[in-house]
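Question:
When you can, review this sequence-structure pair and walk me through the tokens.
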Amino acid sequence: MATAASVASTVAMNSLATTRDRYNNGLVCQPRRGVWHGYTAPLAMPKMKSHSGAKKRFKRTAGGKLRARHANSSHILEKKSPKRKRAFGKDRVISKADRKTVNQLLGGKHS
């Protein structure tokens, strides 16, 4: 014959298992400090966000090309020729090897 304590522990274990099942199916929020909390509705997929650092460093032209600032253009300019320094003022086109990565950071499709 089952005692009241063993029945209560069996019921508690069964309810914990079903809560775990619901958690594994994405229906329950994660346990905090080992305690399982109540039901929450399944969440929609999160929005994709652009990389905030990439937004500040790269820009897309109207034609779809990616442009960026030149490297080595901010300090130790005394030894660089005026022609070279003028060229630093113009944006440079991102190389083909880096295009896919920068596109992903900016939240665009691969090209």
About this structure: DSSP finds four helices and three strands in the chain. Residues 52-105 form a domain with the Factor Xa Inhibitor fold (CATH 4.10.410.60).
